[in-house]
Write a structure and sequence with these properties.
Blueprint (H helix, E strand, L loop, with lengths): L1 H21 L9 E3 L2 E3 L3 H6 L7 H10 L4 H9 L5 E7 L5 E7 L1 H15 L17 H5 L7 E7 L8 H11 L3 H11 L12 H8 L1 H13 L3 E5 L2 E6 L4 H14 L4 E9 L6 E2 L2 E2 L10 H17 L1 H8 L6 H15 L4 H16 L3
Antiparallel strand pairs: 1-2, 3-4, 5-7, 5-8, 6-7, 9-10
Helix pairs in contact: 3-8, 7-8, 10-11, 12-13, 14-15
Length: 360
């Protein structure tokens, strides 16, 4: 029994020595930075610091770039899962989408990565989603007036982008391999881009750059127009062979390690209604909100103004605290598409009174 106790003590001592020798002491030699002030870590902090497979130089460099204590950075890298809260939301097409939202600490780090590193990176002009000063209107507008439209979707757009690919993105931007390893780890969850991180949209657009180049070149070759909003690809023109185009696009998408979701492929002929990312371009002259969506929104506004917000939400079984905010948000979007629409303008004003006065 005594031998086992001595053996256990020896193991603990060896482990503590290993942790001390491997503790980050590069650059500032046994100093970490908190709010830009050097502090000497205590013995216990040095012993209990988590071991991560990244070299001390890259951890020290990233801690300064991201304004985070190197010990905290190690903890985040060692236990990434606990820094996210995952939940599911329903999709309009049915089923659910899993959102993995980072906690405040990791969120701030990812915002720094986005603003300092990812935001300045050039994207293909065909990519209209997740970009400053662009919206789904910019995605739909190029297809206005075209006789034929083909819409195709990418399967699991964020989830199909592996951490290895993200590391390559940071390397292509100009960061060393060891630093790119750390930055990629901070942007990924279970080795994939998480839907919910502020870095994921920008990284997905960068990852799709070569695909956008290929698809834009194909569109030019066949006298077509191409645009992409997130995972939604749209091609339009006055003449093309549907099956041939689907086959060519699918091959090009696969060549860049993405996949086409065939069940969501939609072809809209000359006399068919044309909806691109929620906007109708059927008139060929101007963009409008689809009639079915207008009816749905008008109904919601009517019931809120006549029954009251609380009664309406109880009636439809909706307990979303941001229900009114979302409805007003969509009305503002509708107004941006149809700026001359008086009904929308008046509805926004009426709902604003309910929101501020509290009439329910």
């Amino acid at each position: 029994m005594d031998i086992l106790i001595y053996f256990a003590i020896a193991i603990i001592i060896i482990w503590a020595i290993f942790k001390l020798l491997n503790y980050d002491n590069s650059a500032e030699k046994d100093k970490t930075r908190i709010n830009n002030k050097p502090q000497s870590p205590g013995l216990w902090q040095r012993i209990t610091a988590p071991h991560v497979p990244y070299d001390n130089q890259s951890l020290s460099w990233c801690s300064k770039l991201l304004a985070v204590d190197v010990v905290e950075l190690k903890k985040i890298l060692a236990y990434r899962d606990i820094h996210y809260k995952s939940f599911r939301i329903g999709k309009r097409s049915g089923g659910y989408r899993t959102i993995s939202a980072p906690n405040e600490q990791l969120l701030n780090i990812q915002k720094t990565i986005y603003n300092r590193i990812l935001l300045p990176v050039g994207l293909h002009p065909a990519a209209t989603g997740f970009r400053k000063d662009t919206s789904i209107k910019d995605n739909a507008k190029p297809h206005l007036g075209k006789r034929l439209v083909l819409k195709m979707d990418i399967v699991d757009f964020f989830g199909s982008i592996h951490e290895y690919r993200v590391r390559k993105i940071f390397q292509a931007i100009g960061y060393p391999v060891n630093v790119s390893d750390v930055l990629a780890a901070l942007c990924c969850l279970r080795q994939r881009l998480p839907q919910g991180a502020p870095t994921s949209p920008a990284l997905s657009n960068i990852a799709a750059l070569e695909m956008d180049k290929k698809l834009a070149a194909l569109a030019t070759k066949y006298n077509l127009t191409y645009s992409r909003y997130a995972d939604d690809m749209t091609f339009s023109g006055d003449e093309f062979e549907k099956d041939k185009l689907i086959k060519i696009v699918t091959k090009a998408v696969q060549s860049e390690n993405f996949a086409v979701k065939r069940s969501k492929t939609r072809y809209m002929g000359e006399k068919q209604r044309k909806i691109v990312t929620g906007i109708s371009i059927s008139s060929g002259e101007k963009m409008t909100i689809p009639k079915s969506k207008k009816r749905q929104v008008r109904q919601q506004v009517h019931y809120i103004l006549t029954r009251g917000l609380d009664a309406h939400q109880r009636h439809i079984g909706n307990n979303d605290p941001a229900y009114l905010k979302r409805l007003v948000g969509y009305l503002n979007f509708w107004l941006s598409v149809e700026p001359e629409n008086r009904y929308v303008r008046n509805s926004i004003k009426a709902l604003a009174k309910i929101k501020t006065v509290g009439i329910v």
